[in-house]
Design brief:
This protein is mainly α and 283 residues long. The chain folds into 2 domains: 44 residues; 228 residues, Growth Hormone, Chain: A, CATH 1.20.1250. It contains 10 helices and 2 strands, in the order H-H-H-E-E-H-H-H-H-H-H-H. A two-stranded antiparallel sheet has the order 1-2. This is Autophagy-related protein.
């Protein structure tokens, strides 16, 4: 082969070599960019290396918690018991007779009287005022380390204990105690929802498939950051939807258990206490 032929071959090969070199450089740069982005987004996550992969047992524990934390007790039954005691303690401001469906109804309040409906509004307003303060002050702890899960545990116990406290409400004159029990239990219940909802993004992030996509595929440049975010987002939505379904099933089951007691024993003076006991025991 003459020198002229060799030169011609080199001229033909040179663009191919440059293209291959450029392609390799681009791939290396793309992988580097992905790795830097991964480290900037996930490298500061606490216990990112030691965090265990979400197990099936852990996931189902999360689902079953929402079966019990469905709100029948603090959201519905406790309020009904509080209002029942309040109305039974009320009287007609005109003649002091017990309240009827057509008369005004008031209770003694701070040296005077206040309408029963106003007392209920005060209780609800106080409840949401406390929750607003609590969530602004303590809400960020839900995303900080392992502190949130201990708060969830403590708040669950508080809600549970104060719900059982309603079993001591037997006479209408105990309505102030019923009001306090209702406010505390409802605040605790609302707080459990906040700290419970803060858990599922972490569960989704450490699901086996999502973790593999983040720690292997994303780092190796097999997927882009946008593709990984879509994978994690879909897993979060999946867990959220299933847990919501479990909450609805738990709500339905608890109401069915309540009715199985309330209907046959409707003339028993302690039927409400028994129904509340069963409601809490199912939670």
């Amino acid at each position: 082969m003459s020198s002229k032929d060799v030169q011609a071959v080199e001229e033909r090969v040179e663009p191919i070599v440059k293209l291959a070199t450029a392609s390799g450089s681009f791939k290396k740069q793309h992988t580097k960019d992905n790795l830097e982005q991964f480290q900037s987004l996930y490298g500061i996550d606490e216990d990112v290396i030691d965090q265990p992969t979400t197990s099936r047992k852990e996931l189902w524990s999360y689902y079953l918690y929402y079966n019990g934390d469905n709100g029948v007790g603090p959201g519905s039954y406790s309020q009904a018991l509080f209002q029942s005691a309040l109305y039974s303690a009320g009287f007609n401001p005109d003649d002091g007779t017990p309240c009827s469906a057509t008369s005004a109804c008031v209770v003694s309040w701070a040296g005077g009287t206040k309408a029963v409906s106003s007392v209920v509004l005060v209780a609800n307003g106080l409840t949401f005022a406390i929750m607003t303060f609590l969530f602004v002050w303590l809400g960020s702890a839900a995303d900080y380390g392992h502190f949130g899960r201990w708060l969830l545990f403590a708040l669950t116990l508080i809600c549970w204990v104060f719900q059982y406290g309603f079993m001591a409400i037997r006479t209408p004159d105990q309505w102030p105690t019923a009001m306090a029990l209702y406010v505390v239990s409802y605040v605790a219940y609302g707080a459990t929802l906040v700290f419970y909802a803060a858990v599922f993004p972490r569960l989704a992030r450490y699901m086996p498939y999502v973790r593999s996509a983040r720690e292997e595929d994303l780092q190796d440049g097999k997927i882009t950051q946008e593709e990984y975010e879509e994978i994690e987002s879909l897993e979060r939505n999946h867990i959220s939807n299933i847990s919501t379904a479990h909450s609805n099933w738990g709500y339905l089951l608890t109401l069915a258990i309540n009715l199985s007691v309330l209907l046959p024993l409707q003339n028993d003076s302690y039927v409400d206490n028994l129904a509340l006991c069963l409601t809490n025991s199912c939670k």
